[in-house]
Amino acid sequence: MTVTEIRQLLEKYKQGTLSPEELSQLEEAVVAGSFEEEIKADILHTLYTHAAPDANWPEEKKAVLLQQILHTTPMRPVRNNTVRKRWIYAAAAVLAAGIITSGTYLMMRRQEPAPVAIVHPKAPLAPGSSKAMLILADNSTITLDSSNNGALATQGSTQIVNTNGALTYKGNSSNKQPLYNTVATPRGGQYQLTLADGSRIWLNAASSVRFPAAFTGRERLVEVTGEVYFEIAKNAAMPFRVKIKTPANDMTVTVLGTSFNVMAYPDEQAIRTTLVEGTVQVARGTESSLLKPGYQASIPSAGGTFEISEADIEQTLAWKEGKFRFRNTNIKTIMRQLSRWYDIDVAYDGNVSDIDLTGVISRREDAGALLKALETTQRVKFTVDGHTITARPVASQ
Q1: 56 vs 58: CA distance, rounded Å
Q2: What pTM, to 2 d.p., does this model score?
Q3: Adjacent-strand bridge partners of 356
């Protein structure tokens, strides 16, 4: 089963349109522990788009459910009939929780008719914005956006402050055990973060970073998914390491003080680390390589060894600069970027594998403006149906 197929099953599940065969496929994937990161991303996506009705549960109960989901803590099956009905009508965290708990909720779903959802979607094709979820060491959660300003929490002796879409950790921890936090963006979201050591991080859509509130010991270790850009504060006595992982691959990046971009989406063809400034070492198992500025290291999603190549820095960092930049970029690669930023679904009508396009456009534009720009190439046409965009090749004359 592919990432696209699991997404389609999750969407059908929430819509109540799964066939018995599809339900069995989804249950098997859940029980096997497959696509864990994709399911978590779907949970955050559903939470932010309000794609499920609200059961008027207290916020603290929803938060507990979400915390358990994000940390893959098994939940007890729901037996009571009254609770079960409220479960079905709960918000996205509850919907997704049933998937995580090895099919418990999926089994109950068979016996209950699909509820009528009151959906409050954002405007179709609207661009993303600064929004994310902060998960603290005690598993409590805080919604982040550009309006939620001020001191949010304290971890040890480290204060967490949010200012206009940027999170900052101030102070040092005296705790012997590190207090780990996570910042996760949904599809259609991005966020900035300054760690306690002064290192700065930018998260693209559908990405996450797990890190200690304050660094102790001999190294500074963080874990990422999705796409993240780093500007690392120098500290030769405490190397900075980034652990990158997808369902099929993993990579570790070790730096002292440098700027680099990591792209590790599970639906992309490779994990890529692109060095902008300084020096980094990329490692996987017993294999390692040093990167020079302007170069990138990639590992194919199907597995294999490092491939070192010259990087297109402008194209790689375009997302951080608020742009889409394509240079002979395949239309499927383009549409994957659009699907994450505009929170849309993509379909294809015909063979588009030979369509490579070039162009630059602001990420602040609605998707409709970008699609029109791509259509001026007379290589591809788009049909928009709600949040689904279908691309088809333009027949040659």
Answers
A1: 6
A2: 0.71
A3: 330
